[in-house]
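Supplementary Methods, section 5.1.

A reviewer requested that the exact input to the structure prediction be made available. We therefore reproduce it here, unchanged from the version used in the analyses.
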Amino acid sequence: MKNFIIYRYLCREITYPLFLVLLVLTFVLLMGRILQLMDLMINKGVDVTVIGRLILFLIPSFLTITIPIALIIAVLIGLGRLSRENEIMVMKSSGISLYQLSPPIAVLAVVSFAATLLLQCYFAPMVNSTGRRLLADIGRKQVGVGLKEQVFNDDFPGLVLFANQISVDGRSMREVFISDSRMGPSPITIVAKRGQWFSSPGSNKVLLRLEEGSTHTVGEDRDTYRKMAFVTYDITIDLSSSISDATATRMKEHSEMTPRELLQAFRAGADLADKERNLLLLELNKRFALPVTCLVFALLALPLGMVKHRTAKSRAFVVALCVVIVYYALQLGGDALGETGKVNPVIAAWAPNLVLGVSGLWLFVRTAREKPLLEMDELTASAKTIVRRAADRFQKIKRKHEG
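The structure derived from this sequence is encoded token-by-token as follows.
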């Protein structure tokens, strides 16, 4: 009964900052994308309900990142407050060891692991795929949204479009250059001062009306050249055979695949390049390695949170930031080595968890035995041993060369 009361107390101390930090971190990540989405709504005329759906589709991918980080910060804040106010010391004096304090934190870690696993393996791939289809549908209905000025846009089969200036809403262009090869082997080059997009809601066709320009055609025999000036010139584009078909037939990206699809693609990809196979195997293992990070971070947070400090919250953020930086530095290095094949992709995906997990286990056992996390005498002795061995090695090499 006594342990149950303590477990409930610990859960309450950790759960509140967990949800608060999770909300703040997710909101911070969303802010970078929300500004871009607001531009679509305000300047491009995209419906607010579509923007809301796109925001919802972003949340699962962000939660897979923020849940482990929020967990380690919450555990450090909760245990740090208890340690600062000597409540941990009172519990230890009552015969409660670190092992007995671990179950509620382990339960929270397992729940976070399960939530991250579901998001990483099923919900995130599903909403990533749906979000890309929704963006393609926006591009189909409002063609100008996806065009970029001063860039050769080849989104439409048989057409290459260049515009020096595009309006904020994407509906009008200035100084337009178009190469149209849909009518035959000899493309038609069209130059115009202005261009305007027109579309009908129930049709898959859009009209591009060009003003004050000219068309230029070279004959198949390369001996004839024809130029025609115009006041207005209309180009009809059938989107059902361009953007929509391209979207339907395109290959799924790795972020849109479930673990089963990644495994099937890896097994069926005997003819794929080594780099692509490494990417598939790396992505497959990361789907399971990232949720395990919740368990690793909880294991690290337990001994680190026991250290008494006057400012528990600020220290919790600093320590968590250091752990997260180390983890993602190891992950980035592992990704680079795994993609190139210099390190087995399986090892590259799991190396950050292995390194931090072993470190967390060592710190946990040391704290449970009432030893300080960093023993200065041991560090000094180790440093002296390293220096002495290096000096002995240097002397041996010097004597060898002199002899």
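Residues 2-139+256-379 form one domain. These observations are discussed further in the main text.
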